[in-house]
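Protein 1 of 2
SEQ + STRUCT:
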Amino acid sequence: MRYFLPIILFVLTATFTVSAQDDYYIFPIDAPPLLSANFGELRANHFHSGIDIKTGGVEGAKVYAAADGYISRIGIKPSGYGRVLYIAHPNGTTTVYAHLREFTPEVEAYVKAQRYRMRQHNPDIYPPASMFPVKQGDVIAHSGNSGSSGGPHLHYEVRKSSDQSVMNPVTRGHIKPADTKHPLIISVYWVSREEVMGVATYNYKRVPVKALASGRYGLSAPLTVSGEGCFAIEVRDTKDNVSNKFAIYRSSVEVDGAEIFELQIDGFTFANTKYVNDVMEYPLSTASSYDVIRLARHDANPLGVYQSGKGSGFFTPREGQQVRIEVEDDCGNISSLEFSLSVTEQRQRVVSLPTGSMPVMWDKEYRQTVGALTLTIPKGALYRNSFVAQRREPLLPTPPADRPVLSEVYTISGPQTPLHKSMTVSLACYLPDSLRSGACLARVNMESGALSYAGGKWNNGAISISTTAFGSFCITRDTLPPTATISFADGADLSGRSSFNMRFSDDFSGVASYTATIDGRWIILDQKSPSSPHIHHFDKDWLTRGTQHTLELTLTDGAGNKTVIKRNFKY
């Protein structure tokens, strides 16, 4: 049975607008209109760029073209979107259908031919516009659980075709989920800031809230503030008929009736999606099971989700000021928190900084050498001015037993929020010729002494990597090649089977590349998700039955170690 979304009437506020094209698209899947995730959710290093539609915990639901158009792009990857289709429409938009199980037979045949032509297991393919035209309601695929997916569902997006920026399909009226529930407000924070050497340092004061009526909240205890700062709000949203939690669409702050801040997540570009780390109050949000949104914008944040002219959200409070914080979900339900401010004299707060800390400005490149370690942080890598420290560590308390430490250990300390762009870490060390092969940088757990692969190769007296994460580093070696577990023994009779599978493993740097041939001919290896085995489906078009064949598998790890495995079989 095919389900279409029922028409639901909403009471619209001035901040909730519906596109005139709300009937241009149909519901894209043969499943009830229930969501497990909505647009703009705050995730690690990205906003959620679409909606996730439930498929009842199973794969195989029919997926329909939401509007007339043509298939403009096809992707296959074990991570990210998995198996994904893009359909371009005459109105200048593109719809995206991700985590699919399979495409139509015609598209599958085309994709197979292109993978062989390109000799790529996981390609992006751009068919000619005339190759796969579709009409609204055509079956284009079946839903699945491929790629970085936590369970069977359909990920669905609406993009502008011109720049592939994503749009909120619910606030624009393209998708209409049932939702009569007000957003939940859990707590409010006063985020006070003081400037030290041109760097703002932050202190947090949290007060839980209490529900007064449907959609109305008050403080459960007084909130006393001082100095300059802003608010942060701990929130979640829910919808009818599902237990999932969802993102807030809009949040705003009024002080004495004047709006000083507004955030409204209607759309964004993928080039800017990583600024989600600066929309949330990062150390608070990552420690909470809810979203903690900073109701203020840093100067370095260029996102268009902030409403211009409403203010940055930072202010200096005065005694008795009336505050109204409002949050709205994507279906127009609003909750508000109102309270008055109590202000104390600002007390001097002692800011504790790591030894050797240096102020790094977000809009300038920073380069510093301490001992053998050279650190380069490019302009725009930080979300705000921050303190960064570099130091040489004493000997490891527990040296690793399974891997050599070939250099001194250095630690780089910085803000808890990850970098927006990669910094370059370069560690100099003399290595004799006998130790240069397989040399790389490792991250060091300073408590256990354990090492994990960071990357790089020895070059002219140093090893360099690009990374967005601070930490401790040293030079080590990876000399063991990767291995594979193959589902058949040498000489096996596979004549009754349609496929075989393999699992790859490596003890340190990970499998960086792989290729497989049968009788010298390149073959496709499918992988559904990052943890799934690699599978080859025998190609009856060219593999001769009743004869002997040879599989040759070549694996290379991140440090350049290579393994070649051969297996003979009968088919």
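Protein 2 of 2
SEQ + STRUCT:
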Amino acid sequence: MRGAFLLAWIAALLAPVSARAQAEPAIVVSANIDEAAVTVYRAPNRGGGAINPNWPQGFAFITETRTVALPAGTSVLRFEGVAEGLLPETAVVSGLPDGVTEKNRDARLLTPAGLVDAYLKRSVTLRRTNRATGKVVEQQAVIQAGPNGGVILQNAAGGFEALACSGLPERMLYPRVPKDLSAKPTLSILVDSKAARTLTLQLLYLAEGFDWAANYVADRGSDGKTLGLTGWITVANGGVTSFPGAQLNVIAGRLNKVHSPPLPRSTPGPLILRCWPMDITSSHPLWELPPIIEFEEEFRMDAAEDVVVTGSRIDRREGLMYLPAPAPAIAPPPPPPAEDLGDLKFYRVPFRVDVSAKGQKQVALLAKDKVAVEQLYAATLYQNNQPQPLMMRLRVQNREADGLGLALPAGTAAVFETIGGQRLLVGEAAIGDKAKDERVDYDIGQSPAVQFRAVVQERGAKDAYQTWQVTLTNARPFDAEVEMLIPFAIDPAPEDWERRGSSWVWRVRVPANDSLAQSFRQKLKDD
């Protein structure tokens, strides 16, 4: 009886443990993407500036197709290799017949800096090798600070030192990989399945850390009346996840996007090691050897390889991180014309593209041989006592009849001319989004040869008008077409001038090596 009672008591104690073990959901890892589509939106507030190479300020809508094998019951499905800037509240998984119970974004990434951050106030093994004797010495140490600005260790004797500052080759060994560190950015979901089955799922989400810009190259023809215009789409991926063979699309135009708080980056930045001058360190040479990080047997080798693959190159001597060089530009046929997406423009790249981590990619946007162009000299009228140069402006009418007639996304254009057999840069210009049939102006630089001077004649305090005297000079050996914006009401109103809002556009041809004067009467008071 006593033995039977003892067995029953032990069984009662073990029952909750067994129940908990059975209740633990299975873990299913989806590590491969069958197909991916990346649609990139420009940074809303970047304007015409350059893309931020460290963390692009735009975003992307990403569609991933994956095949997973789910067991019956409850399981945790881990989507490894999602974009680093994934916004978890936007993630949608379709193809699960029994739905999703929970979503989690695993933000901490397995990197040298991530390991130091995970082991703050915890013990590691510090291994040093004597270069003269080859003797290896190991001691326990506690990471007290890091990874930003260096790593501070407290050794077993109670002293403090900075990693890689002893003058000896050093290595830090970690007992195991922390459970909350992932080799790749991961989204995990809790799912229920009534039966074991293999499913094809679609994962859709928005992700930060992407951007794109348009770049144009314009070559002026020898006649000065045509341009050869080519356009490129430059797409930037600032995260640690690559999307090989993806369907790439870009969206032009500015859309309203509600501000969301900044996401924690998957990586806390590069591991930068710094030393400071002290007697104990200055007496030893500092060899150009980076610290090597090792792990015990429990560490998976495939995770170690991911650290090498996804990490940025670090210059240990200068403490700087360099992005990989962008892949060479490819020159396939340009994509089809833009499609309408509401009032935005949707550009679909008609071939598969590798959207590489920490990289930029260029694909062709357009190629036009003979686009009609007009050369002008432009300025906005203001009072100046000394002659001022006018802006050299190339004007294109975005019409099919003039050799163009396409929706042109905002970007920068580099203008070249061929002089004496050499192709030389004339200037660069920024343009906004331009619709079909809209005027496109390239302001490429001021011309000292075409100038203007504007003087306001004296007037009485009660006068309703004032008179401007404008003088244009052209020191070039051919005529100059001048376009001047006059930002006020003129009396009497001109009959054949262009009206732009409340301003007038005065257009006149100034003969070669000559000057021209004109007076304008500005109306100051309404009748």
